[in-house]
Amino acid sequence: MRRLAVLALMAPLFVACATTQALPKSTSCEKGRLWACNEWGEELLQDGDRSTAEAAFARACDGGSEQGCLALGRLRIADGNLAGAEAPLVKVYETDSEEGALALADLYDARGGEAHAQAAAKLRWEAPAIDKPPFDVAMQYRIGAWRPTADIALNIQPMAFLDRRLTLGSNLAYTSLGISEFNGFVGYQHFATSWLVPYGRMMMGSATRYSRDPGFNVGAEVGARLCMSFVGHVNVAAGMSRASGGYMSVGVGLNGLFVLLALLHVR
Predict the structure, then answer these.
(1) Nearest CA to 108 among 129, 85, 92, 91?
(2) Which CATH class for the 20-126 domain?
């Protein structure tokens, strides 16, 4: 009897949930559900109703949906409304979105002219780097060095440094005996794609008595990063230094902001 009573009380909730799930996307969109606006817009495009699709994407974009803004901008470009396409695409671009940068470049190409062509080229140059962290902290393990060595590096790469192509930073290497070297470095990285980033760096600093050759230290490293957007990267590299000799390394890096938040949480 108690079970029947509970079911009777819960029945209106089940009906309400079923009704919510059964709402058409147009109604859900009008109620402010952004995912419904985007999905409804795509369905309208497939049905050939471009004007209503634009309204659906505009509602999603106004609500803060990057997907909606991208769809709206691209639809307006396709329809020849280049002036109206700029605002939603700029909105996405300003969130450090690679897709937003590329879509905005397409808009400038569509406008034509030398100035717009230059702006489009700059956006495509920025695009693969735009969503990467301005600085990261990386841990590497050096294989084949004078002694098994770990390396902690702070890599600084804001967009102001040639759109993240130029990097500056420092690294600290240590063995089981203690800290073996401390260096500053300058490097260059090439965005082959948004996720594959070969790099090279020159290191200069000092080697301690726990290194192979104490005193002034100099070295170099080349490698490649496999980037995961703003989160971080994994990397492989080969290098050498007076303190460690030749080595291969594997490592992982994390967005420096995440590391700072973790340290603050620990404190």
Answers:
(1) 85
(2) mainly alpha
pTM above 0.90, yes or no: no
Phi, psi of 230 (to 5 degrees): -80, -5
Contact assessment for residue 38 and residue 60, using Cβ atoms and an 8 Å cutoff: yes
Q: What is the CATH number that goes with domain 135-266?
A: 2.40.160.20
Number of Cβ within a 10 Å radius of residue 231 = 14
Dihedral angle over CA of 69, 71, 77, 83, nearest 10? -20
Backbone angles phi, psi at 245, to 5 degrees: 75, -165
113-156: pLDDT as tens digits: 999 999 999 999 999 999 999 999 999 999 998 899 999 999 99
Please state at what angle helix 114-126 crosses helix 98-111, rounded to 10 degrees.
170
Angle between helices 50-62 and 66-78 (to 10 degrees): 150
CA distances from 242 to 144, 155, 228 (A): 14, 21, 32
Alpha carbon distance 226, 215 (integer Å)? 34
At residue 51, does pLDDT exceed 50? yes
Strand locations in 208-244, DSSP E? 215-228, 232-241
> How far apart, in whole angstroms, are the C-alpha atoms of residue 151 and residue 157?
19
List 202's β-bridge partners, or say none: 186, 220
Q: For residue 202, which of 150, 247, 241, 163 has the smallest C-alpha distance?
A: 241
Lookup result for tokens 């300003």: 94
